[in-house]
Design a protein that fits this description.
The chain has 186 residues and is α+β, with helices and mostly antiparallel strands. It contains three helices and ten strands. An eight-stranded antiparallel β-barrel has the order 2-3-4-5-6-7-8-9.
């Protein structure tokens, strides 16, 4: 069994090379109490993130809008290699008792990945966490600091970083997103 796990791990490592992975199962951080989805909808700009292979550009933003069927349309945009690139996905509330734990998918064939809102004031800041457990041997994690504007005050970013750190999330690989030279029509 041990050799099978090691072989599986070696085969999966290239898939997570541009991500943040850690040994053991996913942690379970505290999420935003009394989350209000309607107040959360709209445009958020990425301020900082743990590495994600699907986000390599600049001017990264996400726009959330409620569909008639109750799902949430997610449109992520970034400026990469001279072009605005957009991808559309779907978010769903996975537990009506804990509205801050959403699931997001960008493909009809892929399962919903975690999108947990750890903290938000709805007007300026959102701190989001996602984790995928791989056989409880290791996990791949993502974290985002989002703002309603392209730039946040240093003390707001510090608050978000301290919150993530207090939940045991390693921010050493976190990078800031370039939000300079962005056009509002993106």
């Amino acid at each position: 069994m041990s050799s099978v796990c090691h072989l599986l791990l070696l085969l999966l490592l290239p898939a997570v090379a541009a991500q943040t992975y850690r040994w053991g199962p996913c942690p379970c951080p505290k999420v935003q109490p009394n989350f209000e989805l309607q107040k959360y909808l709209g445009r958020w700009y990425e301020i900082a993130k743990l590495p994600a292979s699907f986000e390599r550009g600049k001017c990264i933003e996400a726009n959330y809008d409620l569909r008639k069927d109750g799902t949430i349309q997610v449109i992520n945009k970034q400026f990469y290699k001279g072009k605005v690139r957009a991808v559309e996905g779907t978010a769903v509330v996975q537990d009506l008792h804990d509205m801050s734990k959403l699931g997001v998918s960008f493909s009809y064939f892929s399962p919903y990945g975690q999108y947990w809102v750890l903290s938000t004031d709805y007007a300026s800041l959102s701190v989001v966490y996602s984790c995928t457990d791989v056989l409880r041997v290791f996990h791949v994690e993502f974290a985002w600091i989002l703002g309603r504007s392209r730039f946040l005050p240093a003390e707001t970013i510090r608050y978000a970083e301290e919150l993530l750190t207090s939940e045991g999330i390693n921010l050493a690989p976190m990078t800031f997103t370039d939000q300079t030279g962005c056009k509002d029509e993106q």
